[in-house]
Design a protein that fits this description.
Elements lengths: L3 E12 L10 E17 L8 E5 L4 E4 L8 H13 L7 E7 L9 H16 L6 H16 L5 H8 L3 E4 L3 E4 L6 E7 L6 H14 L1 H24 L2 H17 L5 H12 L4 E5 L6 E6 L4 H10 L4 E7 L6
Parallel strand pairs: 3-5
Antiparallel strand pairs: 1-2, 2-5, 2-6, 3-4, 6-7, 8-10, 8-11, 9-10
Length: 318
């Protein structure tokens, strides 16, 4: 049996992070320049449920049966066994790798979860649609994050831009024009738990002020969707910068992120903001296509440890 290979892209929250926790919408895009990959090789001589996991990025080299019952990799196998209605999984070796930096707001765990679900299901002949993949990957994400919003596993499973509201669903957004982004890693590990809990604490202390800020972010998201659909790229850029200012107000930015946002804009970006939970991690800049390389270079000079240029393609029916 040939090897099964399943890949899943990274993602970025374009606008709406943090406010999405408080029932505001958010827009997320896939990033196809960097991906997670699951490769599964059959082991004809192995026993049922003899599944060897190799994940060099996290220094994991172990057997399925040796993993704790709530380990995300074991959970992935168990949910596929249940979905496929099999008592035992065929013997195999599962290799997991990722180009996506961890703790950087780019959906590394969700991409691994999605690639695992896709690979493990294909290996036993189970063909799942995108929504089912997203739903099963969410069950794995719970083991990583407790109560994630669901936006990461959804945008990664569908591999298309989405407009998302927690517990209310999502719809796909069709851009009128290609959108060129530069994503820059600050080199500082973000801490989602710390960022989210900090915002929650400050929200409890001043709910009126924070609800007003979250409502402003919700309006930015609505305007951003209209700008994406209509192809008003300059306006979209200004909305990113406006969103960053509010994220700074709610206390989730970092001096290096603020510096990189300013550098990107002064180098010709149409707008820029932190992306993800903040306190480190990445920032994203919307750029004219011909300036993307220059802006990436300026961000590296300003301290970015990695830059990625990614183009979100316009809708095919345009």
């Amino acid at each position: 049996m040939p090897a099964i290979v399943a890949k899943a892209p990274a993602k970025t929250i374009l606008v709406g992070e943090h406010a999405v926790v408080y029932n505001q919408p958010a827009i997320a895009f896939p990033i196809n320049q960097i991906k997670a990959k699951t490769t599964i090789l059959a082991n004809p001589n192995g026993q049922p449920d003899e599944i060897i996991f190799h994940a060099q990025d996290i220094f994991l080299d172990t057997n399925y049966m040796e993993l704790p019952g709530d380990h995300p990799f074991r959970v992935a196998v168990d949910i596929i066994k249940k979905e496929a209605r099999i008592h035992h999984y065929p013997a195999c070796t599962v290799r997991i790798s990722s180009e996506i930096p961890i703790a950087a707001g780019l959906g590394s765990s969700a991409a691994i979860s999605v690639s695992l679900v896709k690979g493990l299901s294909l290996f036993v002949g189970l063909k799942l649609n995108n929504q089912k993949i997203a739903d099963l990957a969410y069950q794995i994400e719970i083991k990583y994050h407790g109560t994630p919003s669901g936006i990461d596993n959804t945008v990664i499973s569908f591999n298309q831009p989405i407009y998302f509201i927690k517990n209310k669903g999502f719809h796909i957004i069709n851009p009128k024009e290609n959108l060129t982004f530069v994503i820059a890693n600050s080199g500082i590990l973000g801490n989602t738990k710390e960022a989210v809990s900090g915002v929650k604490k400050r929200w409890h202390q001043n709910q009126d002020q924070y609800n007003e800020l979250f409502n402003k972010i919700g309006q930015i998201v609505a305007n951003a969707e209209n700008a994406i659909i209509s192809g008003d790229i300059k306006y979209l850029g200004s909305l990113l910068t406006e969103n960053h200012k509010i994220l700074t107000q709610i206390g989730v930015s970092h001096p290096i992120l603020d510096t990189m946002v300013k550098v990107a804009i002064s180098s010709g970006a149409l707008g820029a903001k932190l992306c993800g939970s903040g306190l480190g991690g990445n920032m994203i800049a919307l750029t004219p296509p011909d300036l993307a390389e220059k802006i990436a270079g300026q961000l590296e000079k300003a301290g970015a440890v990695q830059t990625i240029i990614d183009v979100v393609q316009k809708a095919k029916n345009e």
